[in-house]
Amino acid sequence: MTPYRLDRRSMLRGIMAAGAVSSLPSGRAKAASRPLSLLTNWYAQAEHGGYYQASEDGLYSAQNLDVSIQMGGPQMNMTQLLMAGQCDIAIMQGEEAIRCAVQGIPAVAIATTFQKGVGGLMTHPDIHDIAQLKGHPILISSEGRASFWVWLKKRYGFTEDQAHPYTYNLQPFAFNPQMAIQAFVSSEPYGAKKAGIPFNFFLLDDLGYAAYGNVLMVSRKILEERGPELQKFIAASSEGWKRYIFGDSIKGDAAIRKANPDMSADQLAWSRQKLRDIKALGAPGAPIMTMNDERWQRIYDIQLSAQLIADSPKWKEGYTLDVVHNSLATVPA
After folding, report:
1. Hey, which bits of the chain come out as E strands?
2. Residue 128's CB: how many other CB atoms inside 10 A?
3. 319-331: buried (b, 16+ CB within 10 Å) or exposed (e) per residue?
4. What is the pLDDT of residues 257-270, one digit of tens each?
5. What are the backbone angles phi and psi of residue 320, rounded to the nearest 5°?
6. Which residues pair with 219 in a beta bridge?
7. Most exposed among 24, 113, 147, 184, judged by the fewest C-beta atoms under 10 Å?
8. Of 247 and 143, which is predicted with more confidence?
């Protein structure tokens, strides 16, 4: 998620920012006294744009909510921060919601940003089928090695010695024509394009690895205490995402770039287009940020078949459909 753009100074700034609330003052005068804090899973970027847009457009304050956005960064244990009360809502991956439930951790997914995972593998252009990567070095993050990498090995016969640490930049990929790297459809391909590096991109969802992308998780305590506020937050956020991806994103982009000056306007525009291309928010007419039991069952089945989790009926405690409701904005036709 845009890691290749960040130098050491930027990384330190992002880590420090995770403990400090971003200043998003629009429309706060009427807001409730107790804020809701949202912790993102990376530096501010297009993948968080709907939340910044909702704040800047006053959609949260219109719901009498005071919402703060805390910017995440690398090497952060999101589950630990969420359960320690460092935030009210954390952006995580759907697989983590199931793992938490199976392990008895009281964290619950209440909505999803994207209807599919936006991650995949970026390869050199001579690779036309993922199966061709057998024997090739592949850069995978520690999180990836504990999730989709296990599934890829089982499905395509990859071996553990192919996996190497993801270094958060494109140089190894650029200099090694045999290498592939994990990537996000709206991030690393942009860097490769700007650097003139030819590539192919394979979305994990297209390969059969079902996932929700950028799921919103809360502690069960917050869910029980602030359920009505969470419903309002999701309703406002869904409208923010509709405006950011399909409407006027100027205010959202400005807020993102204020929080993360390393982000360019050109990349934000490129990323939005990629999210539109893959229908990340859903098909036309679909409620934005919604979830359903069928998709969760498929995610669970894949995690179970890859032996990433233990078989347990407790997995269904990892999500709730009570927060997504009929007031959600829908994807334009």
Report:
1. 36-39, 67-70, 89-92, 107-114, 119-123, 138-140, 163-165, 180-184, 200-203, 213-219
2. 10
3. bbeebbeeebbbb
4. 999 999 999 999 99
5. -140, 145
6. 107
7. 24
8. 247
